[in-house]
Design brief:
Layout (H helix, E strand, L loop, with lengths): L1 H14 L3 H17 L11 H20 L3 H15 L13 H14 L3 H15 L9 H15 L2 H8 L7 H4 L2 H19 L2 E3 H7 L5 H11 L2 E3 L2 E3 L3 H4 L3 H27 L1
Antiparallel strand pairs: 1-3, 2-3
Helix pairs in contact: 1-2, 1-3, 2-3, 3-4, 4-5, 5-6, 5-7, 7-8, 8-14, 10-14, 11-12
């Protein structure tokens, strides 16, 4: 009885686009799994029930991302982990959303600034794939891996391009674009404070990928920058000039900014 009920719920989950309906169906599915003793995989759990449980938790994970609920998504990822670790003869990987969900989890760690967790997860993926396979070649896994590398290099222009192009693997990945945009904007702002004594408002608009000069002024005020005669002055610049180490940092920051400005000008030319 519980098994038929579970299959019916899964069919409805696959067909609905309504978040409230999905939430209700997921709650019912978990109750059905509880009745079947399948909330976690047991040695006695039949393969067809394992498959259904994995489908429920994967649907829940994707639903949580669309609902912009990272805490719920993380819980689903943890619930899925023991199912993903089962050998193929017990639970085949076919029809699984494993790479998609793992890629989303990597992206979540990236937006949270959890680089240690990101690399721990990545090491586990590399061990799973074994020699001769590049994790980065996978469409879903490669996207967050490339973004993380470019962020570490300060290649913000490449990150902008990736987030604004068809390289985004699926609609769920687009949920993180706004978060990453804000993080990158603040990172570029910090680099600007280090690299330049001042910048024209027009250049700052392109640099920070803001829609208008009014948005630049609002952002500048939130950072405590000084606006005068069409330029933005960085008050902390005088405190950062002098030491060789800081000079090296300035050079790196300036390079990252120039790359981003170049891409912004490129976009204006296209438009």
């Amino acid at each position: 009885m519980a098994e038929r009920e579970l299959q019916d719920i899964i069919r409805k989950l696959k067909s609905t686009q309504s978040y409230p309906d999905s939430s209700s169906l997921l709650s019912k599915a978990k109750i059905a799994l509880l009745k079947l003793h399948a909330l976690t995989p047991l040695p006695t759990t039949p393969p067809n029930i394992l498959l259904s449980a994995r489908e429920v938790f994967e649907a829940g994970a994707l639903h949580s991302i669309r609902a912009k609920d990272p805490a719920a998504f993380t819980r689903y990822v943890h619930q899925l982990t023991p199912f993903y670790e089962l050998p193929a003869d017990r639970l085949p990987a076919t029809k699984s959303e494993r790479n998609k969900i793992t890629g989303l989890y990597l992206l979540l760690l990236l937006t949270q600034g959890d680089y240690a967790g990101f690399h721990t997860e990545l090491e586990g993926l590399e061990l799973r794939e074994g020699e001769g396979k590049r994790v980065e070649d996978d469409r879903y896994l490669g996207y967050p891996i490339k973004l993380e590398r470019w962020l570490m290099e300060g290649s913000y222009d490449l990150v902008w391009k990736a987030m604004a192009s068809r390289e985004v693997p699926s609609e769920e990945y687009g949920v993180f674009s706004e978060i990453l945009t804000s993080q990158i904007r603040n990172e570029i702002a910090s680099c600007s404070e280090t690299a330049y004594p001042s910048l024209p408002i027009s250049s700052t608009k392109n640099l920070l990928f803001l829609d208008s000069e009014g948005a630049v002024i609002s952002f500048a005020q939130s950072r405590g920058w000084v606006i005068k005669d069409g330029r933005i002055y960085f008050p902390n610049q005088s405190l950062k000039a002098g030491a060789d180490q800081e000079g090296n940092q300035k050079e790196l920051s300036q390079l990252a900014i120039e790359n981003t400005l170049g891409y912004a000008r490129e976009l204006e030319t296209i438009v």
